[in-house]
Amino acid sequence: MNDSDNIIEVNEADFETQVLTYSFKIPVVVDFWAEWCGPCRILGPVLQHLAAEAQGSFRLAKVNVDENQNLAIRYAVSSIPYVKAFKDGKVISEFVGAQPEPRVREFIHALAPSPTDLSIAKGKSLLDNEEWKSAEKTFKQILGDSPINAPALLGLAKGYLMQNKAGEALEILENFPTSREYSSAQTLLPVAKALVYFQNGTAIDEDSLDAAYHQALRLIRRSNLPAAIDGLLDILRQNKYFRENEARQVLLGLLDLLGENNPQTRQYRQEMASVLF
Length: 277
What we know:
By secondary structure, this protein is an alpha/beta fold. It has 3 domains: about 5-115, Glutaredoxin (3-Layer(aba) Sandwich); about 115-180, Serine Threonine Protein Phosphatase 5, Tetratricopeptide repeat, CATH 1.25.40; about 200-275, no CATH class. The chain is built from 13 helices and 5 strands. The chain has a 5-stranded mixed sheet with strand order 1-3-2-4-5, with helices on both faces. Strand 2 (about 30-35), helix 2 and strand 3 form a beta-alpha-beta unit. Helix 11 (about 225-240) packs antiparallel against helix 12. The protein is elongated.
């Protein structure tokens, strides 16, 4: 058992001080468990890992229900493992059973974002503000400590695409880890592929839709997403299936790059729907 201030064992005698009073400083997550409980042995290490990773943004307090039956009765713990989160002396959230780590991480994140969570939020804000180079630096710092952090990888790929570093973005997106961000990575992949293909150079008929498509790719390289999106919409108005749906896939990727926080995104999605359907 970790002996730090943020991972502790508590009992009926010190619960008031170590959990209720302490929760006025930072959130306290209480793990009600027992030695004989198999699922507890699965969940316990997950909670301890997240508590160590959080670097003091919350406290993990473990309560052995066999040794502290009055606490179990007081907090209606009828099944274990039972996890309750306390803040300002009150239970604010809870779950029962050995949940998978992503679910537990979401539970913890809702209570107390970790330093990594805060850094990711900073990087996303920099992307929204079009500060691509600063966003790249932020995401690289995160990945220095956690090389397979999916949100940071996705953010870095977006930063690369907006700085005309399609090759670097493509490498990330083609090797993206299974995660909640995987779908978004796949949406961006056609953009990276198209830009890399464009950089290699091909001869085109300047009066064809290919010329308009290449102009849209040039605009992406200049970080002018609205103009590129307008160009792709014009192409789709003339040919919905241009290059076997490549233009449509690139357009979807650009809308993901533009981001849901951008007020233009919803309008562009509506225009795209009217063109295609």
